[in-house]
Amino acid sequence: MERLLALGKPGVLGPGTDTFNRAVRCHTGPNGEIYVADGHGGEANARSLNFPKDGKFIKAWGKKGSAPGEFDTPHAIAVGFQGRVFVGDRSNNRVQVFSIRTETFSKSGNIRRPSACS
Q1: The domain at 24-49+69-118 falls in which architecture?
Q2: How far apart are CA 63 and CA 80, in angstroms?
Q3: Could you tell me if 66 and 75 are in contact, meaning their C-beta atoms sit under 8 angstroms apart?
Q4: What is the pLDDT of residues 5-22, one digit of tens each?
């Protein structure tokens, strides 16, 4: 199988635009853009990132916390056909929904440790 794209730097952890720290899941949206849930607990990044098809960084959002737009273990990510990004915020027991421009639309509470969005 041929590798089409690689993101991050092997063996290098960090909060940069080309590094990850405990990335859990990625998803390709209908327009080919790539979304990554980065931060599986502990001292991880607790953020989501967006890349175009060529892998050049577009945007990152989120930080450790429980307020809207913050994450505590972003464990799943998916993109809907209406341009919404769904992030399973596992330790906060919710799914947060963002627009492609990462404005928070809504959050769903009382979801027991979301682990996958598909």
Answers
A1: Beta Barrel (2.40)
A2: 23
A3: no
A4: 999 999 999 999 999 999
